[in-house]
Amino acid sequence: MDNPIENPVNQPVQPLEMPSNLTPPEPMGGSGSPTNLPAVGSNRQPSSSSMPPKEQKGGRGSYILMIIIGIILIIGVLVFLSWKDWISLGGLEKLWGGGKVTPIPMPKITSEISPSPIPSSATTSPQVTTNINDQTRKNDLATIKNALKKYYETNSVYPVSQMVTKTSDAESTLAKALMPTYLEKMPNDPLAPTYYYGYKSDSTTFEITAVLEDKADPAGITAGTYFIYKVTDISKE
């Protein structure tokens, strides 16, 4: 008689173990391995590959900033072209003085100062006329004296005239001696024939006279009713 299996009351029963080379059968309805399911109550975070991509806020802000800068540059170029009067922005260039400005007509200024009248023979005072005539007489007598000096250098005598001769007399000894070699034309008094130049000579000396109108002239002398200006061969004018 076989010995019965000993099962002491106090010894625990060991569970049956499946061999390691065997896999449990798949449940009906497809594969549903519990190994692919996350454990209940697990704190495991999903991987980065399974999370949706975050929105890149920095790139969008840069794009908006570039648009704003471009708009500002375009406005600046338009304002510059308008300031140079190259384009018109609907009258905006008038704010800084650009554009075509209508010229303001300047009022014509009419001078109220009348020009000074030019002295003429009709308005010249008698004193001025007298001075001009007397100066002409002095110049004419100096011209005749110079011609007589040249005549004397050549002929060693002066043209003889015992009586006073008018220089305006073309037939006189004086006129024939001086013209045309020494004088082209004999000078004559400005108020001829009322007044005249007189000539007198003894061949070694001569005297030429003229009547002055200004009786206050210190170069003249009184001779009867006339005020005479005299030039001689030895006088110094």
Automatic annotation (TrEMBL):
Coiled coil: none annotated. The chain crosses the membrane at residues 63-83. It comes from the Bacteria. Residues 1-58 are annotated as: Disordered. InterPro entries: Pilin-like (IPR045584), T2SS_protein-GspG_C (IPR013545). Signal peptide: none annotated. The keyword Transmembrane helix applies. Keywords: Membrane, Transmembrane, Transmembrane helix. Residues 42-51 have a biased composition (Polar residues). Residues 134-214 form the Type II secretion system protein GspG C-terminal domain. This is Type II secretion system protein GspG C-terminal domain-containing protein.
